Structure of Cysteine sulfinic acid decarboxylase:
Amino acid sequence: MDSKSNSSSAAALTANRVREQLPDDWKILRDVHELLQKQNAFCVSPQQWGEQKIVEFVQPSELKQLINLKIEEKETHSLSEIEKLCQLVIRYSVKTSHGRFHNQLFGQLDPYGLAGAWITEALNTSSYTYEVAPVFSLIETEVISTVCRLAGYDEGVGDGIFSPGGSMSNMYGVVLARYKRAPEVKTSGMFGMRPLAIFTSEESHYSLKKAAHWLGFGADHCIAVRTNGRGQMELGDLESKIEEAKSRGWEPFFVNATAGTTVLGAFDDLDGLADLAARHGLWLHVDACLGGSALLATQHRSLLKGLARANSFAWNPHKTLGAPLQCSLFITRESDLLARCNSIEVNYLFQQDKFYDVSYDTGNKSVQCGRKIDAFKFWLMLKARGYSQYGHLVDHAINMARLLEQKLRARADRFRLVLDTHEYSNVCFWYIPKNMRGRQETAEWWTRLYTVAPKIKEQMAYSGTVMVGYTPLASRNLGNFFRMVFTCFPVLEANELDILLDEIEKLGEQ
Amino acid sequence: MDSKSNSSSAAALTANRVREQLPDDWKILRDVHELLQKQNAFCVSPQQWGEQKIVEFVQPSELKQLINLKIEEKETHSLSEIEKLCQLVIRYSVKTSHGRFHNQLFGQLDPYGLAGAWITEALNTSSYTYEVAPVFSLIETEVISTVCRLAGYDEGVGDGIFSPGGSMSNMYGVVLARYKRAPEVKTSGMFGMRPLAIFTSEESHYSLKKAAHWLGFGADHCIAVRTNGRGQMELGDLESKIEEAKSRGWEPFFVNATAGTTVLGAFDDLDGLADLAARHGLWLHVDACLGGSALLATQHRSLLKGLARANSFAWNPHKTLGAPLQCSLFITRESDLLARCNSIEVNYLFQQDKFYDVSYDTGNKSVQCGRKIDAFKFWLMLKARGYSQYGHLVDHAINMARLLEQKLRARADRFRLVLDTHEYSNVCFWYIPKNMRGRQETAEWWTRLYTVAPKIKEQMAYSGTVMVGYTPLASRNLGNFFRMVFTCFPVLEANELDILLDEIEKLGEQ
């Protein structure tokens, strides 16, 4: 027997064995929910928060000893061995659904969102054609038109797409704006053009700079605009930087507003920016990845006043609302531009001789080919709760942030707010350890204060009791402070805020 | 009571109600597996394939009547109503795990992959720092270094990242190559440079053209190279197009090879291309999104001969191997380039004053910020089966494709192959209806033949018995033919091929 038929029969033999074993292998899905429950991955009930750790933190080198990560050629594992491995993975992972995880811009999951995610993973299809995703194509369209309505567009106006995250959604904005300004870039590129300039505030998300790099503009042509005391882009500085760019021979074409900055949660003045953008002929994009959820709010919707006048915006329901990561929308008021900008003739996917209305094949609007069904989980959430419930939960999260500010002020000897008031559900503050209180606040005192948050963070990791992120803010020459961000889930009660502050005090004195 | 405190108390009221209802809401996760089973979403056992439809196809307008898609402000739904809605969604979705779904480049899921996907969705974290994804950070590193080893890199050489799909992975290749050639583009952009030119075969994936557009090169600077009879890029034509580009004043810098073209499954000559790329100083990227799975194969690994000499490649385990969508790897031989090219100073995420080794924070290599944990599902699959089992399954899938060719030849009066032999697991063929057999094959005859596949496809949709894709191939002036792609799952037996061909014949005569 030669080596080729040898390996050919080995393939057939293994294929048989795998085929016979498959019914058993599929049993793992039956057990996933139980595996997660056993390790308390969803630590949902407040009664559990005090008992269960958010994370059982171990250093990388130690973790490598605890879980056999090595992938081998021939080593196989039985269903029960794989389940044991999964238990270890869950055990040493961060429980982001624990009610005291406030470390990122996202928090606890909405169970309907997770159910939607599990179902789409199981149906494992792609958002490019009605043929392979009939229900999901209609659902994506429905969600997008609902969001266009919420944004204040007229009936039938607007278009959009789900993309794999806010950075990509912002890139869609830049690419569309460039295509609108100079459609020839699609074929000829940007060589030989005079530099196109992007404007965004110094406190905006880094994805704009990364987009400038990737899309060929260069980070130098992504110009940082100063912010005011509240973290909003200064329109005066924007205007003078536009003029400065023009005087260099650059062509201003795009301004990014931020609705909910990453650190302070500040909202730019969208109406003012819309006026300014109109005056200078710029595309106005709004990075509302964080703050877009205010669209649903009753009490705080005015934060987004002017949004309908922007040319496009990005919104991540996976942040405030508790949709599972990734759930990011790019929306534009320019109805046909997405398809015109991104489409290309693709015979094997977007045949025009199909037996159904091919306008339901939306894949050609995308820069991707295969694309996950991110719309369904969000749709299921909205169906379950109606958007008004989320609106009230967003309001509640912001109200809790205001309450936390009050409580921080009431502990003014121990805590210091970065801003007097924040606009959204972010609250930024320092903890002042006992031995630093009542001292003169010299430059040295502040330098020392900036080292406190990282030390408390370390204690947080080892105790697993609470997780709150920290960050410096270079644009204000500020060193490390805590940034606590409230989300729709967990739905916090007021007393939880005292528990949190008490815990930070406790860890701060260790 | 003024309107602000009115809506404030409405928020508190709703928050209370949602909080109280949450324990019930979380029950939906317990039921997801059962919901999927009830609707036979995983139609895994061959015994079911004849009885269960792959899709219950209805036209868009009708589907809108069958499922209430509308999102309302105040309408909420109970757990059991949501479960009924989910059942409808599952019912009218395509069962891509049905053993007779052969419509795309992906097929049935690997259950371990799906279990991994469910667990990462549940743990809902992001691949940027060790802090929020300790286990998953190590797992991504482990998978990447395993793939580097499989690609033939020396110990410690190579780097990579999971990206949201093959189009993005190919974009990583272009961006890295551009940065290597001209690091100043990161800051200054491409304005004023002489045009940089990309070369790729006329049968390569459209993502290269979309990348050329997005990244600012323009589609005109993405030059299509002719293919030979087997669908491979012609090195002679490449060389003359490089010279032609140079003579126009353009700067050739990037050649994309395809390992497994979308339609024919052709593999470019990587060794030949590596020689040519070296000669002309080009970055060689390999789009192995489809064919990368041959890395694991024993019998067919030589298809990728020369891969180790390429500067980078993309590989989607969500295609052949049955990992859930999205699971796409970008790998490069240039060890530190990803981080240097894409990094940016991001204080709130990538602090350097952390309490663990921050080299485990890999998010700065990415163009994204939040990034799904796509590594874990693939890792779990590899742990469960070892990579040699996948190797044999890949071999088996390719062997089945060869067997199908034989069977098509045995029915030569009714079927016609597009190529005599294909290299990978794709098989392309026409069905010749009874009333066209034995006739003179005039231009009209062929034109008529090209209308057959779309009609059979319509029958497939309504019968739900089998799904096989069809496509024309413009580069060869060929009209619609079927493209059947074998994947690791389902693990097919030989007799299944006759069942498939019989079914196409049956539908073809209706």
Q: What stands out?
A: Chain A has a mean pLDDT of 96. The longest strand of chain A covers residues 251-258.
